[in-house]
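Thread: "does anyone have the structure for this chain?"

Original post by V.I.:
We have the sequence but no experimental structure in hand. Need at least a predicted one for the grant figures.
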Amino acid sequence: MERMAEAKKPKEVVITLNGVQFVVPPGTKVKDAAAAAGVEIPPLKVDPEKCKGCQMCTKACETGAISGEKKEPHSIDQSLCIRCGECLAKCKLGSIVPA
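Reply from O.Q.:
Generated one for you, tokens below.
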């Protein structure tokens, strides 16, 4: 009997900003979850010591504000960043931090 591949279920993401922790449920925009928790997303930057250049944040950024070569630390163009926070949810290394 063939075993059907189980679809990966999206998981909630827990984000901590300025000492406040909030949960982003699957299918919810980070900015909406932050607003519901009373958290304003500050300007963000990439910590080059933590960034490994996986490019997950660049794929999540809807404005193209994040750039960088694969396997190299990335950077955020503040003039393009709309502070939506989607990069926070995608970065598994915690390299996206308040500027």
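V.I.: this helps a lot. The chain has one domain: 13-98.
O.Q.: and DSSP finds three helices and six strands in the chain.
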